[in-house]
């Protein structure tokens, strides 16, 4: 891969950066008092919960148990 191709690939990757997309699509929010902590907005929380439901169903289907620490 040439340097030019690498730079082009970096520019393309920026279009799909989850940190930017989440803010633009109003799925998450950030607060200056808690840098690095994402707060799920209603639609983001809905997606998160649906994903967690899917993962938990996969755990059960495959014979695993969920643990928390």
TrEMBL record:
Which EC number(s) are documented for this chain? 6.1.1.3
Q: Which enzyme type, at the first EC level?
A: ligase
- Identify the SUPFAM superfamilies for this entry: Class II aaRS and biotin synthetases
Signal peptide as annotated in the record: none
- Keywords from the named record: Ligase, Protein biosynthesis
A biological process (GO) of this protein is: translation
InterPro entries, alphabetically? Answer: aa-tRNA-synth_II/BPL/LPL
Q: What is this protein called?
A: Putative threonine--tRNA ligase
Q: Which species is the source of this protein?
A: Medicago truncatula (Barrel medic)
């Amino acid at each position: 891969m040439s340097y030019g191709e690498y730079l082009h690939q970096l520019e393309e990757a920026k279009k799909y950066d989850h940190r930017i997309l989440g803010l633009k699509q109003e799925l998450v929010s950030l607060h200056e008092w808690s840098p690095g902590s994402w707060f799920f907005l209603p639609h983001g929380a809905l997606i998160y919960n649906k994903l967690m439901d899917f993962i938990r169903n996969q755990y059960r289907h495959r014979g695993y148990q969920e643990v928390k620490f």
